[in-house]
Amino acid sequence: MNNVTINTEEISPPAWSDAVCTYAVKILEEIKRDNWELSILFCGNKTIKNLNNQYRNKDEPTDILSFNLGETVKDGGRDIYLPGDIVISLETLRENAQYFEITEDEELRRLLIHGILHLDGMDHQTTDSNEPMLVLQEKILSKFNNEHIIPAGGKD
After folding, report:
1. Is 150 left (phi over 0), alpha (psi -120 to 50) or beta?
2. Rounded to an integer, what distance in angstroms lies between the CA atom of residue 145 and that of residue 140?
3. Host H or E run for residue 134
4. Rounded CA separation 112/102 (Å)
């Protein structure tokens, strides 16, 4: 059984946090992962800019960062996999949604899939849509197109 934990920094917890957990668990099941303890941090641009500068030497905000841990621990006799953390700036998410002329919900779902695939060991060298990781990301996004996290017209 997979478990997803949501935390926030510099922002209030979004009303739709539970829906994020449900969606992330569905993505983990889709890529056939089990016993994951996934951590997701929602924040603003200040927090993600600091992390991006500290860990990637890029002094600018970004939409998502993935921090791989990749450790297995024992919990009551069963193995629990700690893949790492996903950090998403809701400010940059909104900016990207406007720029790409998509809903914030679609952008959030895409970012969650993207982060999970990174924690699962996938990577991409460019943002070219033919990159294998990005092809899989869009395939998963399309498969779960009827799933929604942020209610239509809803905000956090």
Report:
1. beta
2. 8
3. helix 132-143
4. 16
Per-residue pLDDT tens over the stretch 95-145: 999 999 999 999 999 999 999 999 999 988 877 788 899 999 999 999 999
* Alpha carbons 130 and 56: distance in angstroms, whole number: 25
Those residues with Cβ within 8 angstroms of residue 89's Cβ, 6 or more apart along the chain or in another chain = 42, 43, 44, 45, 47, 48, 61, 62, 63, 64
- DSSP one-letter string for 78-95: EEEEEEEEEEEEHHHHHH
The yes-or-no verdict on residue 42 having pLDDT over 70 is: yes
- The pairing of strands 37-43 and 64-75 is unpaired
Per DSSP, the three-state class of 104 is: helix
Q: How far apart are CA 109 and CA 97, in angstroms?
A: 11
Nearest residue to 22 (alpha-carbon basis) of 106, 121, 138, 147: 147
Give the per-residue pLDDT at 154. 56
